[in-house]
Amino acid sequence: MGRGRLFVLWLIVGLSFLLVASTVSAQEAAKPRYGGVLRIIAPSGPQVLSYVPLMGPGDHSAVFPAAERLVDATRERQTTSGVEPVLCEKVIEDVKNLRITWHIRKGIKFHDGTELDAEVARWNIQQILDAKALPYAKYLKSIKVTDKYTMVMELNEYSNQLVPSWGWWPIITSKAAWDKASGGDLEKGKDWARTNIVGTGPFMLKEFKRDSHIVWVKNPNYWRKGRPYLDAIEVRYIPDSATAATMMLAKQADIWMGAPPKDQIALMEKGLRRQSAWPALGMSIWINTAHPKSKWQDKRLREAIEYALDKETIAKTLGFGLFKALKSLPPPGEWGYDP
Questions:
Q1: Rounded Cα gap, residues 112 and 110, in angstroms
Q2: Is 132 left (phi over 0), alpha (psi -120 to 50) or beta?
Q3: 3-state SS, residue 57
Q4: Residue 39 domain-assigned?
Q5: Number of domains in the chain
Q6: Which residues of 180-201 are buried (b: 16+ CB within 10 A; e: fewer)?
Q7: Element (H or E) spanning 29, and its range?
Q8: Is residue 81 assigned to a domain?
Q9: What is the rounded distance in angstroms from the CA atom of residue 43 to the CA atom of residue 51?
Q10: Would you say residue 131 lies in a domain?
Q11: Coil, strand or helix: which one is 126?
Q12: Is residue 128 part of a domain?
């Protein structure tokens, strides 16, 4: 089936999870508290931990404890570029001269003790480029390292999507760890990366068993002083919602990620708390309006589908009152949203 023939029901879902009711006072909660293990339930786990060209959205979110990026998203997503430096001290976009300069933050080390510098950052981007998986690759003319902590990208063309796409999407991992594991064999490296990650994040991988669990432990040498607060994070993969609900009620877990709406409501009625992050689009396939031969070029067809779908009822039925219908491609709070 051609891409132009595919469409999805446009629903917006809040990224939500259930929390075990807390007995900590508001005054105590306001103070940083060190130690403890956070126990999480998730319906499924990652398939690839650190080879970016093979990683899907679920893989990226699963390795957040260990993986960091050159830039990260900010809360001020409507009034700024939407990203801020993380592993970079700063990013300079020279639109006139078609150049992006990345100044790598000094003193950051990977979990294996090796240092992050501009060459390692370049290698990470080049690995994705070699696999023909880098977004907006046609805009990139060359990548070069001008000094130990400076990486320069020369462009064929500019887009305001380049820094978010090249700086936020790829996780930055240890080249030394990859080289040691792969021995120069790409396929061997891919196999290793399915179950291993050596990043710069606040937590290090201790144990991963596919479809069972993953355990992260505190990185004692994390570059952000005073963090992390937790000693460890344990995630168990439990696809059966009845089992997960029972564990939450028994306080055998602290958080249930991706709980079905019906279970969320049932547990909320028993005193558990629901927390939602900013809304985001789920993985979806959109109608193809870019292809010149696509039937979706016809605005009348797009309008007919829009008017035919009772999105409010669909959201209410599937979400049990927790979902909201999407009225435009960008949800409220995101770039491009027009109320």
A1: 5
A2: left
A3: helix
A4: no
A5: 1
A6: ebbeeeeeebbebbbbbbbbbb
A7: helix 26-29
A8: yes
A9: 22
A10: yes
A11: helix
A12: yes
Q: Quote the tokens at residue 201.
A: 């994040």
* 291-296 CB contacts, 8 Å cutoff, 24+ apart: 291/3, 291/4, 293/4, 294/2, 294/4, 295/4, 295/5, 296/4
Supply the angle between the helices 118-130 and 175-182 in degrees, to the nearest 10. 50
Angle between helices 241-249 and 261-268 (to 10 degrees): 20
- 202 contact partners, CB below 8 Å, separation of at least 6: 65, 218, 219, 222, 224, 227, 228
Rounded to 5 degrees, φ, ψ at 306 are -60, -45
Write down the pLDDT at residue 55: 96
Residue 170 sits in a domain of what CATH number? 3.90.76.10
- φ and ψ of 36, to 5 deg: 95, 165
- Enter the tokens of residue 299: 């605005």
Give the mean pLDDT per block of 10 residues along the chain (339 residues). Answer: 33 49 56 89 97 94 96 66 87 97 98 99 98 96 98 97 92 99 98 99 98 98 96 98 96 94 93 74 67 89 91 90 81 71
Of 217, 210, 237, nearest to 48 by C-alpha is 210
Reference 324, options 1, 8, 12; nearest CA is 12
Nearest-CA neighbor of 232 among 217, 214, 219?
A: 217
Q: How far apart are CA 90 and CA 209, in angstroms?
A: 37
pLDDT of residue 276: 76
Q: What is the DSSP string of 215-253?
A: EEEE-TT-SSTT----SEEEEEE---HHHHHHHHHTTS-
Task: Say if CB 108 and CB 223 are below 8 A apart.
Answer: yes
pLDDT tens column, 300-332? 998 998 899 999 999 899 888 888 888 877 777
pLDDT, position 10: 30
DSSP assignment of 62-101: HTTTT-B-SEEE-S-TTTS-SEEESSEEEEEEETTTTEEE
Q: Which residue matches tokens 């193809």?
A: 288
Q: What is the pTM of this model?
A: 0.84
Residue 124's domain comprises 71-177
Q: How far apart are CA 62 and CA 195, in angstroms?
A: 12
d(CA 65, CA 61): 9
